[in-house]
Design goal:
Aminopeptidase; 9 helices; alpha/beta
């Protein structure tokens, strides 16, 4: 096991040494996606056994990557227990940045892009953050793996992110901002592979599905403006910023909507989901369809953007 772990980490160690700073490893991201999608059952609302297996995997990987105590935020829905998994970095009393991704799926499918890709990014981000001393950080960072983002829980108080956001509000936590990592693995370089909720948008954003998107409200706050500026200049992958009113279809289709509900600044990082990926909520959403190199660029850019803000 130790030899296998060393082999997985070696590309990251070499790349970090070359550039003088940590970078995300595509091999590690791929391993996480295959592990999450390869477990028995389907990690949906009805299959709590599959959800618990995935939650335990996330818990153990966060614990191994960070070497610190990992928290479970458990709650009950219709007599069944569901859990968010949380890893924290930085001073306990500092303003908080929440970075989250959901690990459940819709119906009976593997959910590689939606949203094993987001969870893999969260786990790799934890590894990168654990390389930094946290004593003098300006913010505390909470990495949260959410349960129950998908139907039938979507837009209800049973969403893991709704439970988490409410707990923060109830405890008067100072939340600086929130980032939802929602589907970051699917890309197409050919023309006419990208679609939009409003047709004319292709004249501004192009017809190739080869970019990652920062989706945020039309009038974002200080946190989203600062993060977006740093993230979009990260390099290696085309990054486009999509600012729109809340009523536009798709702009609030993930966990960040529950932080908007409390007036907190929040955004979503996404490959545009069903506007590009025909595998969305289908059995064909499998690990072999993802682009792990581009995923690694996104995680590296995410890490660099956050690190420039917190230390």
């Amino acid at each position: 096991m130790k030899k296998l772990l060393l082999l997985l980490l070696l590309p990251s160690i070499i790349s970090s040494a070359k550039n003088g700073e940590p970078v995300a490893d595509s091999a590690i991201l791929k391993t996480h996606v295959y592990q999450i999608t390869g477990s028995k059952g389907y990690r949906n609302f009805y299959d709590t056994n599959a959800l618990n297996i995935t939650a335990s995997y996330i818990f153990n990987e966060l614990e191994r990557a960070t070497g610190q105590t990992i928290a479970r935020q458990s709650y009950t829905v219709k007599g069944k227990t569901y859990s968010n998994i949380i890893a924290s970095f930085g001073p306990a009393d500092a303003p908080r940045i929440i970075i989250g991704a959901h690990y459940d799926v819709c119906d009976n499918q593997k959910g590689a892009d939606d949203n094993a890709s987001g969870i893999a990014a969260l786990l790799e981000l934890a590894r990168l953050l654990s390389l930094e001393p946290t004593t003098n950080w300006k913010y505390r960072i909470d990495l949260v793996a959410y349960t129950l983002e998908e139907p039938p829980s979507f837009r209800t108080q049973n969403m893991g992110s709704a439970v988490h956001a409410k707990a923060l509000s109830d405890n008067n936590v100072n939340v600086a901002g929130m980032i939802s990592i929602e589907m970051i693995g699917f890309y197409k370089d050919a023309r006419h592979t990208q679609h939009y909720p409003v047709g004319f948008l292709k004249w501004f954003y192009g017809s190739r599905g080869n970019f990652i998107t920062v989706a945020r409200k039309l009038k974002g706050g200080k946190f989203t403006r600062r993060f977006t500026h740093r993230f979009k200049h990260g390099g290696n992958i085309v990054t486009k910023v999509f600012k729109a009113p809340k009523w536009l279809p798709g702009i609030d289709f993930s966990d960040h909507l529950n932080y908007w509900a409390y007036g907190w600044d929040a955004l979503m990082i996404i490959d545009t989901a069903f506007y590009r990926n025909a595998n969305y909520h289908e059995a064909t959403d499998t690990p072999d369809t993802l682009d792990y190199a581009r995923m690694s660029y996104i995680v590296t850019n995410l890490y660099n953007a956050i690190s420039s803000m917190v230390f």
